[in-house]
Fold this sequence. Notes:
Elements lengths: L1 E4 L3 E8 L4 H14 L4 E4 L3 E4 L1 H16 L4 E4 L3 H9 L7 E2 L12
Parallel strand pairs: 2-3, 2-4, 3-5, 5-6
Antiparallel strand pairs: 1-2
Helix pairs in contact: 1-2
Amino acid sequence: MYIRGDHAELVVGGRLDVRSAADARTVLHSAVDDGAGDLVLDLAALDSWDATGLGVIMGAHRRAGRCGRRLVLRSVPPQMRRLLVATRLHRILAIEGGIGLDSLPRA
C-alpha cells in the first residue's frame, strides 16, 4: 500500500488491508489534522481493501467530520463500489460523482 499527496488530495494504491492499516491510519489522520477543506482520496490505483481497510476509511471520515472537514472518495473501483452499496456506506461517505446503482457491474 502507498499513499502519496498532501493535505488536500491523497492517492491511495495497492492493498489497504490489515497489514497496511496502521500506516494508512497514521497518514490519513495527519492529512486530516494538518489541512483545511475537503480531503480527497483518489482510489483509482487501489487494488483491494478488506474490512480493516474500510474501517480506516470510516475512521478518517469521522475524524474529518470532527475537524470540520469532509472526506471525499474519488475514482472508487467497481468492486469497492459494490461493497460500499452492500454495506450501505455509500449513503454516509461522500463519493465524487455518486454511485449510479444501474452502472454497477453485476456479480
